Here is the input.
Amino acid sequence: MTAPPLPPSVAALAWEAAAAFCPAGRVAALTPLGRGNVHQTFLATVTGAGAPPFVLQRLNLAVFPRPEVILANLRVVSDHVRRRSRATPQGAPELALPELLSTPDGRDGFQGPDGSWWRALTYLAHTRAPLKVEGRDHAREVGWALGRFHVLLADLPPRRLRDPLPGFHHTPSYLAAYDALRSGRPLPPPPEVRHAGRMIEARRSLAGVLEAARARGDIPVRIIHGDPKVDNVLLEAAGRRAVGLVDLDTVMPGLVLHDLGDALRSLGNPLGEETRAWEEVRFAPEMAAAFLQGYREGAPELLTPREREYLYPALRLLAWELGLRFFSDHLAGNVYFQAADPEHNLRRALVQFRLLQSIEAQERELRSLIREGF
Ligand code: GN1
Ligand code: MG
Here is the structure.
């Protein structure tokens, strides 16, 4: 989505923050970058010192009230992956991650006089991040990158990371928050709103499927990305290989099934999650098959048989969970996900619910391609 224009006071702060990370050069331009729903992101170009461009982000403190936690986690994760990454024939790491830049006095963040928090990250140049799946090759590359990411972090003790977002991907909590928001009141009359409400009601029992498995000890806790949607995987600008992953704020101890379900619901939707044509949305099994093939190449021995059994429920769950989160935010007045207009989060929810119906209609085929894919 296009970020709303910054109020002049925030724009002035953005320049001040950028300058704080750039003592040697002069910041020449700040341009909006990416399509994140949470932080505000800019590319800062620098003149004068031959310094490379960098990424500047104003952190969303409503979503991440403890910026020091996400900054510390990012250091741990990027250091670990850099050390573990094998080198490509060109000498680059097999998987590049953005790294934190610090101010000359050694701080990882810049705090504005208005309480805002800003951080600077290395910009991974010569890459692109398609918003929607472009084809099977792309889906396979996304799978490979996520598999490598899981493997490279598999020996990092989960206690090295702090929980940046308590309750993230805890689906029963999202359902409880939805119920609290409704507090027994009927939904507003528009048919799309009623449809979204029914999509939630009819699947209440789905909410606990992974949490119950976690509580029984059926599936292990591992370090996950948390938000491996298709546009968080960087491809070579002039090629088709995946070369990096971005958006590491939700890297945390969790269930890889959350990552796998989220990546699948994202790249299995060729129209993309921002489409207005929500009634046309379909889940594409051939993309799922290519993704799983890539994941197996990246992480050949990681998943246990039990995790594989939960892959179909996880895919269903993650499409439903995101629909529930978008719809709840629509009812709450768009307080969490940045919205371009008042119906934006409703449309996003309808996209996920239509995807879910398509997933459910193809259950047999999907279960069998998952069985064959591993
Ligand atoms: C949010 O900001 P962005 O777009 O990277 C959200 C994810 C959702 C995603 C859907 C911290 O991520 O969980 O899957 O939107 N991130 C957070 O586009 O809630
Ligand atoms: Mg994100």
Q: What stands out?
A: The pocket of magnesium ion (ligand 2) is lined by residues 36, 38, 227, 247 (CB under 6 Å). The mean pLDDT is 94. The domain at 8-125 is CATH 3.30.200.20 (Phosphorylase Kinase; domain 1).
